[in-house]
Design brief:
Number of helices: 8
Largest sheet: 2 strands, antiparallel
Oligomer: single chain
Number of strands: 8
Distance between the termini: 31 Å
Radius of gyration: 18 Å
Number of domains: 1
Order of helices and strands: HHEHEEHEEEEHHHEH
Length: 208
């Protein structure tokens, strides 16, 4: 599958494949790969106003031109679904306070959780939310600086359960940029399949 993707995109000089990471669901690998992608933007001196973290499940509900215009008119706001903990985002405090390790794969996987009552570094207030977001370049640069200046923070999150749903949210929502974050939501294909079919139809009409 990777070779097929490379072959299809080889002529696009603005597409970069990062080195491959071994990922276990719910472990730190997803965060590590994302940080590497943000660092790659800096290494390439990429002139971008926004960074979107997306997967194949993420779904455009408007044409690219409309999305670009909306971001340009947003006043530099970031878009990231979040809740303050405890209480919000599936009441996920045990994800922070317990020590976690995951190995999920073939032939068997496991998840170890130890109640060690851990505390977030630097007295940060914990936040959680959707793992996928659109961050302004200012927010991305802040995240990179914070990670570089506080090595204990990523080290702590290596033993957080499903850290990609909390790592970036906690940094940004404890930063001076927190008031510029729009707490957005997303469709879930499990429940909203009919809506997504309607969106497909509408996008096809607009492209004609």
């Amino acid at each position: 599958m990777l070779d097929t993707a490379r072959a299809a995109l080889v002529e696009l000089d603005n597409v970069v494949f990062l080195r491959r990471h071994k990922l276990y669901w719910g472990a730190f690998g997803h965060v590590r790969a994302t940080i590497e992608a943000l660092d790659e933007l800096d290494r390439r001196s990429a002139q971008v106003d926004y960074v979107a973290l997306m997967t194949g499940q993420d779904y455009p509900i408007k044409p690219a031109s409309v999305i670009e215009r909306a971001l340009a008119e947003s006043g530099g706001r970031s878009f990231m679904a979040y809740d303050r903990l405890p209480g919000g985002w599936q009441d996920g405090m045990k994800r922070f306070t317990h020590w976690h390790s995951r190995r999920i794969g073939v032939p068997r996987g496991w998840h170890l959780s130890v109640p060690m009552r851990r505390r977030l570094p630097q007295g940060l207030v914990p936040y959680g939310g959707s793992a996928y977001w659109w961050l302004s370049r200012e927010a991305v640069d802040y995240v990179r600086r914070y990670v570089a200046e506080h090595p204990g923070y990523p080290r702590f999150f290596k033993r957080v359960d499903v850290p990609d749903e909390m790592f970036f949210h906690t940094i940004v929502m404890n930063s001076p940029l927190r008031d510029s974050v729009v707490n957005d939501g997303k469709f879930d294909a499990t429940f909203d399949a009919e809506i997504l079919d309607l969106i497909d139809s509408e996008l096809l009409q607009q492209d004609r």
